[in-house]
C-alpha cells in the first residue's frame, strides 16, 4: 500500500479517533484510495479483542444496491433489459408492474420503502414468490416518477429480475460477473471469519446489545452483503475509474448522472441509477451508504481524480455522515492532488478550423477541441449553456451534458466547402453575430447592425 505523508496520516487518524470515541462505536475501520489504489488505512476499537484489519468483514447494507444496479446495467447493455421496461415485463404477477426499471434504480417508482410484515432487517427473510405475493396496490405510495422515495422493495424486485435473466441467484451473478473480475474475494452474502459482530450501543450507558443477523432471502438485494475495507476499496476504485471487464465506461458514467436531485439547480445530494450522488467542496462524488442493525458503512468515489474513501463500523447508529467527506477534506488540505502534465496533441485540420468564437445571435461562445474528435462549446463570460459533444461516426456530434444533452450538432458547409454554420437542434451558431450570410431563423433585417 502506498502511503500518505506522516503529517497527513496523523491528521486523518485524529479525525477517525474522534469519530470512534464520540460515536462510541465498538470499532471503526476506514480506508482512502487514490488513483485506484489504497493509500491509507486506519482502525479504532476492537473486533473480538483485536484491532480490525483491511481483511475484517463488516456488513455493508445498502451498498449492496450498487452492485445489483451494475448487474441490471450489464443486462441493459446486452439488450436483455431496457431501462424503460415496466418491471412486470421481467417479474410477472406483481401489482406494481407498471413501474419502470429505471424508476426502481433511481428510487422514483413511488414504491413503499419497506416490505409488508415485521422489520425485515431483524427477522428471517422469505422467498421472492412470497414477497411478491404479499405486495398489494398499496405498495405504491406515490405516482411513479413524481418524486424520490427510497425503496428497499424496489431493489428486491431488481434482484429478482437479475436472477430470472441469469437463471441463478442474484448473488451468484454478482459474484461471477463483478466480484471475481475485481478481485473482491472477501465480499460474501453471509459472514466469514474474521468478521465484526453487530451491536447496538445503549444511549445512556457504555453497554452493548448484540444485533441479530439473518438471511434476508428476497430482500437480500437491498442490503445483504458483507465486505472488507480492502474489498470495498476495490469497489471505490471501480466507481471512480471503472473496469471494462465489468461495465462499459459510458454505462458507468450514465449511472453517475443525476436522475433525481434533492434541491433543484443548486443540488448537493441526489441519486443516479443505483448510486447516491453528493456534491462536496467542488467534488462530485458517487457511492452509497449502508445501514443494517449493528452496522454502518459508506463509500464515496470521485471520478475526476480517482479518489475514494470508505468507512465501516459495527454500530447500529451514531456515526456522523460527515466523517467520510471530512477525511477527503483533510487529504486535500495536506496533500492536494497534482494535476497530470499537459502534453500537446495533434488535431486534424478540419477540426482545427472549427476552433475559436461562434455566435448564437449576439451571444459569444468558444469551441475547443477535446480528446479524439470531441469538442466543447462554452459561453464567453459564463452566461449561457455549456456542453461537451462526442463525435459520431456520421460526422455529427452528440451533446453529453447540460441543456444540449442528447441533442445533435451538425456542421454545415457551403457548396464551395467553406464553413457556413453549426446547426445545434435548430439553434444556428455563426462565425459573426447574426451573420447575414447564414440561414439565421427569421432572417437578418437589412442593413444589419446600426
Spell out the key features of this protein.
single chain, 450 residues, alpha+beta, 8-stranded antiparallel β-sheet
Please summarize what this structure is.
By secondary structure, this protein is an alpha+beta fold.
* Backbone shape: globular
Question: Given the helix and strand composition, which structural class is it?
Answer: alpha+beta
The helix/strand series, from N terminus to C terminus, equals: HEEEHHHHHEEEHHEEEEEEHHEEEEEEEE
Q: Treating each run of at least 4 consecutive H or I residues as one helix, how many helices?
A: 10
Total strand count, please? 20
Sheet with the most strands: spatial strand order:
2-1-12-11-10-9-8-7
Helix amount, in percent?
10-25%
Strand count, sense and barrel status of the largest sheet are: 8 strands, antiparallel
Strand content: 15-25%
Question: How far apart lie the N and C ends?
Answer: 68 Å
Gyration radius, in Å? 25 Å
The oligomeric state of the chains shown is single chain
Structure description:
By secondary structure, the protein is of the alpha+beta class. The chain has helices at residues 6-23, 64-78, 101-106, 128-134, 152-166, 170-182, 229-241, 249-255, 322-334, 349-352, and strands at residues 27-34, 37-45, 58-59, 199-201, 208-210, 226-227, 260-261, 269-271, 276-280, 283-292, 295-302, 307-313, 356-360, 363-369, 375-379, 387-391, 397-399, 408-413, 419-424, 427-429. The strands form four sheets. An eight-stranded antiparallel beta sheet has the order 2-1-12-11-10-9-8-7, sandwiched between helices. Strands 13-14-15-16-17-18-19-20 form an eight-stranded antiparallel beta sheet, with no helix packed on it. A hairpin with a 7-residue loop joins strand 7 (260-261) and strand 8. Helix 1 runs antiparallel to helix 9, helix 2 packs across helix 5 and helix 2 (64-78) crosses helix 6. 40% of the residues are buried.
Amino acid at each position: 500500500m502506498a502511503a500518505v505523508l506522516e503529517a497527513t496520516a496523523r491528521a486523518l487518524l485524529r479525525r477517525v479517533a474522534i469519530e470512534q470515541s464520540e460515536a462510541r462505536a465498538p470499532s471503526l475501520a476506514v480506508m482512502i484510495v487514490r488513483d485506484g489504489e489504497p493509500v491509507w488505512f486506519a482502525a479504532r476499537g476492537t473486533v473480538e479483542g483485536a484491532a480490525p484489519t483491511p481483511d475484517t468483514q463488516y456488513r455493508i447494507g445498502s451498498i449492496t444496491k450498487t452492485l445489483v444496479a451494475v448487474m441490471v446495467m450489464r443486462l441493459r447493455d446486452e439488450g436483455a433489459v431496457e431501462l424503460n421496461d415496466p418491471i412486470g415485463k421481467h417479474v410477472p404477477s406483481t401489482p406494481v408492474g407498471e413501474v419502470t426499471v429505471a424508476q426502481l434504480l433511481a428510487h422514483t417508482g413511488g414504491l413503499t420503502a419497506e416490505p409488508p410484515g415485521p422489520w425485515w432487517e431483524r427477522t428471517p427473510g422469505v422467498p421472492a414468490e412470497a414477497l411478491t405475493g404479499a405486495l398489494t396496490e398499496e405498495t405504491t405510495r406515490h405516482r411513479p416518477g413524481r418524486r424520490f422515495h427510497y425503496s428497499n422493495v424496489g431493489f428486491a424486485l431488481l434482484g429478482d429480475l437479475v436472477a430470472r435473466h441469469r437463471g441463478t441467484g442474484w448473488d451468484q451473478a454478482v459474484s461471477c460477473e463483478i466480484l471475481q473480475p475485481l478481485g473482491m474475494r472477501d465480499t460474501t452474502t453471509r459472514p466469514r471469519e474474521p468478521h465484526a459482530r453487530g451491536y447496538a450501543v445503549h444511549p445512556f450507558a457504555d453497554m452493548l446489545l448484540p444485533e441479530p443477523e439473518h438471511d434476508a432471502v428476497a430482500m437480500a438485494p437491498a442490503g445483504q452483503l458483507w465486505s472488507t475495507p480492502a474489498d470495498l476499496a476495490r469497489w471505490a476504485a471501480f466507481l471512480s475509474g471503472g473496469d471494462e471487464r465489468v461495465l462499459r465506461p459510458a454505462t458507468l458514467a450514465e449511472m453517475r448522472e443525476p436522475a433525481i436531485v434533492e434541491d433543484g439547480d443548486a443540488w448537493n445530494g441526489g441519486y443516479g441509477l443505483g448510486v447516491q450522488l453528493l456534491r462536496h467542496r467542488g467534488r462530485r462524488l458517487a457511492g452509497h451508504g449502508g445501514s443494517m442493525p449493528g452496522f454502518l458503512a459508506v463509500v464515496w468515489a470521485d471520478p475526476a481524480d480517482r479518489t475514494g474513501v470508505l468507512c465501516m463500523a459495527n454500530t447500529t447508529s451514531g456515526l456522523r455522515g460527515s466523517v467520510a467527506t471530512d477525511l477527503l477534506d483533510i487529504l486535500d488540505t495536506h496533500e492536494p492532488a497534482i494535476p497530470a502534465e499537459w502534453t500537446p496533441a495533434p488535431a486534424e485540420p478540419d477540426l482545427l478550423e472549427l476552433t475559436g468564437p461562434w455566435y448564437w445571435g449576439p451571444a459569444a461562445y468558444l469551441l475547443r477541441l477535446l480528446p479524439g474528435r470531441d469538442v466543447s462549446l462554452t459561453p464567453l463570460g459564463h452566461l449561457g449553456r455549456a456542453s461537451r459533444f462526442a463525435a459520431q461516426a456520421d460526422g455529427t456530434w452528440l451533446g453529453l451534458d447540460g441543456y444540449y444533452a442528447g441533442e445533435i450538432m451538425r456542421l454545415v458547409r457551403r457548396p464551395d466547402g467553406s464553413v457556413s454554420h453549426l446547426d445545434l437542434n435548430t439553434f444556428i451558431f455563426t462565425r459573426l453575430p447574426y451573420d447575414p450570410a447564414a440561414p439565421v431563423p427569421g432572417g437578418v433585417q437589412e442593413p444589419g447592425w446600426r
